[in-house]
Amino acid sequence: MDRTIRKIKIADLDAVNEIYNQAVRSKYQTAETEETSLEYRRCWYEEHLSGNCPVFVLEKDGEVEGWISLSEYRKGRRALRYTSEVSFYIRKDKQGQGIGTQLLKFAIDRAREISIKTLIAILLEPNTPSIRLLEKFNFQKWGDMPNVAEFDGIECNHQYYGLRIAE
């Protein structure tokens, strides 16, 4: 069976949360240092149901292998209403198989459909696979916050990548 991308369902929350927590355990893939609870993920899900904040999962044979979300950038600030933050996570044993590419292409297309003009990705400098994926889609580094994140005494940069998608 081929991989399919679809909107998230509440039944996906266990898998989505586990994929995110794998990233937390791996370090440098998120600024979180502690795993998120399923209760937190339920609140996150409810928040994403409203407005222009879709979440999509990629599945194969009924198993979620990765997910991508568009989130309101600087919530409540109307002048930024056409800008979304994009976040994506791939199950550890499925990384390097083109899933991120499929998800990011899909999300860029959906963002255009919902009148998003600019996408921003915020990530940690050591996360080179995500940086390469963003650059593949012509995201450019728009900002660098040096040594603002720290993991077990090791500091790293927090970087902003952006893509203008309005035509």
Task: Please provide a written account of the structure.
This protein has about 170 residues and is α+β, with helices and mostly antiparallel strands. The chain has one domain: Gcn5-related N-acetyltransferase (GNAT) (Aminopeptidase, 3-Layer(aba) Sandwich). About 30% of the residues lie in helices and about 35% in strands. It has 4 helices and 7 strands; from the N terminus they run βααβββαβαββ. It has helices spanning about 15-25, 40-50, 100-115, 130-135; strands at about 5, 55-60, 65-70, 85-90, 120-125, 140-150, 155-165. It has a 7-stranded mixed beta sheet with strand order 1-2-3-4-5-7-6, sandwiched between helices. Strand 2 and strand 3 (about 65-70) form a beta hairpin.
Topology at a glance:
Layout (H helix, E strand, L loop, with lengths): L3 E4 L5 H14 L11 H12 L5 E6 L2 E10 L10 E8 L8 H15 L4 E7 L3 H9 L3 E12 L2 E11 L3
Parallel strand pairs: 4-5
Antiparallel strand pairs: 1-2, 2-3, 3-4, 5-7, 6-7
Helix pairs in contact: 1-2
Q: Give the fraction of residues assigned to helices.
A: 25-40%
CATH architecture: 3-Layer(aba) Sandwich
Record the strand order, biggest sheet: 1-2-3-4-5-7-6
Structural class: alpha+beta
Given as residue ranges, the uncertain stretches (5+ residues, pLDDT < 50) are: none
Number of domains: 1
Q: Radius of gyration from the CA trace?
A: 15 Å
Quaternary organisation: single chain
CATH class: Alpha Beta
Please tell me the overall pLDDT: 94
The largest pleated sheet is described as: 7 strands, mixed
Instruction: Report how far the terminal alpha carbons are from each other.
Output: 35 Å
